[in-house]
Description:
By secondary structure, the chain is an alpha+beta fold. Helices cover 45% and strands 27% of the residues. It has helices at 20-112, 115-118, 140-177, 301-304; strands spanning 2-9, 12-19, 188-191, 194-197, 204-207, 210-213, 219-221, 226-234, 238-246, 249-259, 266-267, 272-276, 286-293, 296-298. The strands form three sheets. Strands 3, 6, 7, 8, 9, 10, 11, 12, 13 and 14 form a ten-stranded antiparallel β-sheet that branches. The protein has a two-stranded antiparallel sheet with strand order 1-2. A two-stranded antiparallel sheet has the order 4-5. α1 (20-112) packs parallel to α3 (140-177). The termini are far apart. 16% of the residues are buried.
Amino acid sequence: MRITLIKSTQQGIKALEMNRAKIIATLILAALTLVTIVVITVAVTKWSVQQNLVSEAAINQWSQELNTQRQQLASAKARSEQQIQALSSRLATMQAHILRLDAVGNRVANDMGIADEFAFNDKPAIGGAEASETAITPSFNEVSSSLDKLENSILAQEQQLSALEAIVFDKDINAEQKISGRPIKKGWLSSPYGNRADPFTGKKDWHPGIDFAALSGSEVIATAAGVVTSVGVKSGYGKFIEINHGDGYSTRYAHNKELLVEKGDMIKKGQVIAKVGNTGRSTGPHVHYEVMRNGRKLNPYRYIKQ
């Protein structure tokens, strides 16, 4: 078998003759080339697929790790926020207790005349040497434990200071409620307590209080702190005020020209409560003053001298 290939060119016609051996060799070479190409193509394709699969698995793993880290970070952030909120809440409570301690301490110091010594309104003076290089930042648990101890200490001191405040305050209240002094700022004693000649009948009669003569319209003052229990016009007394001072004590102020308080008013010691007048059974401007305990009229003279 012979194959002749003819090719026309500018130089002329060329002929290539191939015998049977060359044709078989050519076909074998072509087949081998085709097989080689197919094998290479399959190998490359398989490798690419494997690479794609590896890359996708790695990406999935990284994605899972990132999600896990995000969750851990979110959880840590939530715990930190809860701890911060807990500390903030406790600090706010402690600050409120400290403010109360400052207020109570300031009041007690002022009442006892030692405010300049303690200076509650000033920031406490503290200090020390330079910070040590070995100083360690405390942990949350250590800070929380310290706050527990400090809070307990503050509560204990607050109770003690409140008790001291109550003692001092009660002392002041007792001093305010103690009946003493005269019911007028200016004037004189015009009629004593006890038996006397009645100014209208001339007969001997019991006088249950003390009269203080003063200029009409001058000030009538409370001899102790208390609450007004009666105010108005009373037979014989004219314009009249009664003040309850607690512990069964009360005082009365009669014959006033003008009343300056109302029933239920809280009265301070020395407060102006009326104006001197001549109302009721009276011969001239004066204050009829009575001291009572549990409804029994006492001699006001001993309270005036206190």
